[in-house]
Amino acid sequence: MGPRLLALSLLLAVGCTHCAAGVLPPEPAPVQAGACEAAGERLAELGCPEATTPGGAPFAAACDAAAADGRDWHPGCIAQVTSCDQVETAFRGCP
After folding, report:
1. For the whole model, what pTM was predicted?
2. How many structural domains compose the chain?
3. Which of 40, 57, 63, 86 is such that its CA lies 20 to 30 A from the CA of 94?
């Protein structure tokens, strides 16, 4: 193998780890702008423990990160809950 072919092979192997593993980065979840913030505000209004993560981060930050990672926490549904008892169901979608 020539030095150019070897260099190209190494570049492709190192520079495209997702490609080599057959894994593509996740598509962002279809979450409307501001939906995570509205859901976080609603959870805080109701005094729900989900308003912050166990690490102390606000719901909106965790929700936005989840959406960027391709996970939809259904913040539009969470923003509509009227009690903390409804939050778990709302995470799966609106009734």
Report:
1. 0.70
2. 1
3. 57
Name the residue range of residue 85's domain. 26-91
In a domain, 1, yes or no: no
In a domain, 43, yes or no: yes
What's at 20, amino acid-wise?
A
List the structure tokens of 14. 């190192």
Residues 37-70 pLDDT 10s: 999 999 999 999 999 999 999 999 999 999 988 8
The verdict on residue 9 lying in a domain is: no
Residue 60 in any domain: the answer is yes
**Average confidence score pLDDT of the chain:** 82
* φ, ψ for residue 14, nearest 5 deg: -85, -40
